[in-house]
Protein 1
Amino acid sequence: MNPRTYEGLVEYKKGAPIKPESFSSDSLLKWADDFDLVPMDKQPLLPEPDHRIELKEGHYITGYGIPYYGLDGISYATTNKVPTLFSAFSTQSLATNSSIYGPQAAAHVLRHLDVVEITLSFPTMREHVIHIHGHSFQIVERGPTVNNTAAFKTPIPMQKAQVWPMRRDSVTIRAYSYVKLRFRADNPGVWLLSEGVVTHFYKGLAITLIEAPDVLQKRQKLPEEMEQMCLKQGIEASGNAAGNQGLDLTGLPPPVYLTI
C-alpha cells in the first residue's frame, strides 16, 4: 500500500553533499480520524432519507487493454451533444425524466428538499476520493474493510455517525469498503459526483445529480452569452442529450456498460 506521508529533503545549494536523513514511519505517527470530529454549528443528523442511491464501482477493459471505470454500471463520459445543464433548462417537464440526459451522463434526478442518501461501495484494493459539487454532506456511516488481501492485516470496523456527524464535500473511501453520505437537496442545479483522482474521473468514475430541474427552470435563466458560446463552437444548446425533442436519443454513441 502507498504510505500516507511523503517526506524529502530539498537542497538549494549547487553541489551540496547528500545529507542522510531519518524519516518518520506511518506506523509511528498518531492519526486523527475526522469521522469523529464535530462541526462547530453542530448540525444534527438528517432524518431518514426520502431518496436512496446505491452505487458500486465497476470496470471494463477493452480489447485494446484500455480500462474504463464507473458507478452504477455506467462509465460516465461527456458524449452528449447538448450540455446536461442546457437540457435541464430547455426540456420543460421532461427535465425530471433521467433518460433524456443520455445513458453515459449516469443521471439521477432529485426532488427539491428531499433528504438524499448515497451509498458508495468500492470492492477493490484502491482507495478513492469522492467529491460532490454544490453540497456539503454528512458522513453517516463508514463500512469495514474486508480482510481479503495481505495489505490489510487488521480489518477496520464499521462506524456509524454520532449526534452531530462530520460534514465534508470530499471523502476518502478505503479499499474494500463503503461510505454512506446524506444531504438535503436544497440547491437546484446540475452537479457532478466524481472521483477526485483525475485519471479515474477521466476514465468514467462519476455520475450526474440533476437536482430539482423544475425549480431550477422557475428560479434561474441561462445567460445568453453561454448559449452563444456553445453555438459558436458547434455545440447544440437545447433539447435532450442528443439535441432532439422528447425521448429520441438518436445520434448518441453507444454507452460503455461495466462489469460490477
Protein 2
Amino acid sequence: MDITLKVNGTERRLAVDVRTTLLDALREHLDLTGTKKGCDLGQCGACTVLMDGQRVLSCFTLAVAAEGTEITTIEGLAGEEDPLHPMQQAFLEQDAYQCGYCTPGQIMAAIACVHEGHANSDDEIREYMSGNLCRCGAYPKIVAAVRQAKPLMERA
C-alpha cells in the first residue's frame, strides 16, 4: 500500500504492507533508527514517538493508521546545528541514562508527560512514565530531568 507519512516535518511516501508497524516503517523504510525496538509487544516503551503531540507506542501502531498525522521521533527534536530540546539537555545534565537504549523513548514520553500536564509532582511523573522501562534503573534521574525541563518547555 502506498502511504504518506509526515515525520519530523517532512512528508515521506512509502510502499508498505498493511501489517507494517509504524516502528518498522520508521526504522526499516525511513532509516530513522533512534526509535528502538525493545520488546515489540508494547510493554517497554522503547519505541515511543509523538503522534500529533501525544505519545504512542510505534510497535503497536500500524503505519497506515499514522497517515495524516504529524509524527515526531527523537531525530526531529533538534537538528545538528540547533540547540538540544530542553528535555534532551535535562537528560544530559541529570545523567538520566546509563546504557542509553531506552533513552529516546524515555525522552519522547517525558515530553508528552509535560505537554499533557502530568509533571506536577514527582509521583505524577513516576506514574506517567511507568510505561517506559529502564533496565539500568535510572528512574530517579529521569524524574529529575523531567522536573528540570518542565519550566523551560512551558516558556517555549
Protein 3
Amino acid sequence: MASDCVSPTESARPDAAAERAPLFRRPRSVAAVPVVFLGLGLYRAWIEIVFVGTFVVFPAATVSARDLFDWTMVVTALGCTLLARRIGPFFDKRWPFVLGSAMLVASTTLMFASCWVASLAAWAGYAAAVAGGFGIALVILTWSELYGCLNPLRVALYYSASIVAGAVVLYVYRGFMLPWLFVMTALLPPLSFWAASRGFAHLPPQERPATAWTRFSVPWKAVLFMAAYAFGYGLMENGMYGGVFGPHSAPGAVLVAVLVFVGVSFQGGRFDFSLIYRFALPLIVAALFLVPVFGGTQNYAAGFCMAAAYTAQSILIMLICANICYRYGVSAIWLFGIERGVRQIFMWLGRVTAAGVGALESFGIGGEVAVSALAVVAVALATAVLLSERDLSSRWGANFLSGGTDSAAMIRKQELVDRCDEIARTYKLSAREEEVLLLLAQRKTVGIIERELLIANGTAKAHVRHIYQKLDIHTRQELFDLLGLDGRETGPQD
C-alpha cells in the first residue's frame, strides 16, 4: 500500500403570494435563485478535483488519461447529438441520471484508489477517464436541457450563481483530509443529477423540454465563436493551473460570475448582455498577448485575465444556445452536444499546439509570443463572428429545415417567433422590446412578463406602451390581428 497523493490537511413556479406581488424588487432579487439550480456548480467542482488536479495529485492522472477523458466526452456528446431524436429529452427518463451518476462515482473511486494502491495507477487512470468522460457528457447535456427551458435572464442569473457555488465547494473541499475528500467528491455527481431532476420538477409542464422534434441547421456562428475562444484557452491552459487555483475556482472566473449575477439581479430586463463580451475582449487580449510578453504565460495576471475572459464567454455561449432552445424548441441534447463536442476538440487542439510550439525556438522565434499571436488571431475571429449578429435572439447562422416537427403546436410556435422577428425588424423594436413582444404574442400577462424578465411592473408596462406606440396599435386584440393570431384564444388580458 502506498500513498503518493498530495492533498491539503425554482425556475420554480411562484406560489400564490408571489403571483400577487411583484417578484423583482432589487433588495430581494439577489436571493431569487432556487437552490437546486446551483447543482450545476457541483459537476464543475468534480471536474476540477478529479481531472484537473489542482490540489490533489493523482498517480493515475497522466496527460494521456486527461486526453482520453476529453475525447470520451467529445465522442459521447457527439454521439448523443446523432441519437438525440431517439434518446431525448432526458428529463423524463431515468437512465441518464442513474448511468451518469454511476459512471462518475466509478471514475472518482478509481482515481482515489490509485492514491492508496500504487499498482492500480497504470490502468486506473484510463478506466477512470473513460467512465468520467462518458458521465460528464451526460451531466452537461442534462443541465443544458434544463437551462434550455429558461428565459435568458434566468439562465444568466442561475448559471453565474452556480459558477460561484462551485468555486465555494472547491474552497471548502481544500480543507478535507484525503479519505473525507474522496467521500465528499463521490457525492458531487449524484447530487448534481438529483438537483437537475428537481429543477425539471419545478418547471410548469408546458415549460419542460418539448418531445416534438424540430429540424434546425447548426448555428455555426455560435459554434465557431466558442471554438475560437476554446482554442485560445487551450493554448494557455498548460501554464495556467500550476498554481493554487484551477479553472473553476480561479478568482477571475468567480469575479466575472459575481459581476454578471449582480448585474442581472439589479438591472433585470435592462441588463445589457453585450457588456459580457465587451468586458471579456480586453481581458483575453491581455492574457494572450500583452501579459505573456512581459511576464510569461504562467504569470498570475495572465491566469486571472484568461479565467475571467473564458468564463465570460462561457456564460455568453450558454445564453446563446439556451435561448435558441427556449425560443425555437430546438433539442438541447442536439445543440449542446455539437457545441460542447466542438469546443472540447478546439481546446485540445490549443493544448497540442502550445506543446509543439517550442520547436519554434530553434528558428529564433519566441514560443510564448507565437502562442499569444495565434490566440489573438483566434479571438479576433471569434469577435468578428459575435459582432456580425444583432443580438442574442438571433439564429446565429441557423435556419429551420423542412419536415422538421412532429407537432402542430411546435409549428405554430416557430411561425410565431418568425412573425415577431419580422415585426421587430420592420418597426425597429429594440432587443428587449422584441422579447416582450414575443411574450405578449404568447398571451402572457404583464405580471407573468415581469417575472420572466425579472423587471418591475412599471418597466414591463413601459415596454408594452412603447411597443404599442411603434406598432401604432392600442389594444392586445390589435396586436393579435397584426400577428395573425386567433383572437378567440387570447386568454387573460392586461
